[in-house]
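Sorry, I am new here, but would you mind making up a protein's amino acid sequence and the tokens describing how it folds?
***
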Amino acid sequence: MSATAEKIIIGIDPGTNVMGYGIIAVAGKRASLVSMGVIKLNHRDSHYLRLSRIFDGVLRLIGEHLPDEMALEAPFFGKNVQSMLKLGRAQGVAMAAALSRDIPIAEYEPRKVKMAITGNGAASKEQVQEMVRRILNIPREDLLPELDATDAVAVALCHFYERSRPTPAGGPSSWKSFIAQHPDRVK
């Protein structure tokens, strides 16, 4: 990690079989990769044991890297309700680990992450991986076979990009200030 890092962001791509994580250091307008990887969850374990492993794994990463913020990929709405429920639980357990250490959390929909990284909200996981590799100058040999790791780095980068956006001069910084500035436009 860079000694000049202003902020450490941990990105999480929640899953019930494999959970990806990516940690970036932010210094000014530049981000650099600190670490990325996956937590593999044993297929033979019960869903509850997997959730416990996610919690413990996220706490271990937090203790090791001391992130200032966490960004999670929000579950997308699929047709399989059981899969959605399990994915939501995995995300919730990762959130609980961060909250237990007072780390602020932000969520991003998969399309938003893909748009932020590739410019295409329907990009493939491989396209996301290649853009993450290029953005952070990651050597190809350092990439993992599990795309969940670069997906998690992409979530952290998306968060960095969102937080780095300047607020237009004189423009509203929130809905509350917009309403105060334009009461005639809100009914």
Remarks:
- The domain at 7-185 is CATH 3.30.420.10 (Nucleotidyltransferase; domain 5).
- Residues 47-65 form the longest helix (19 residues).
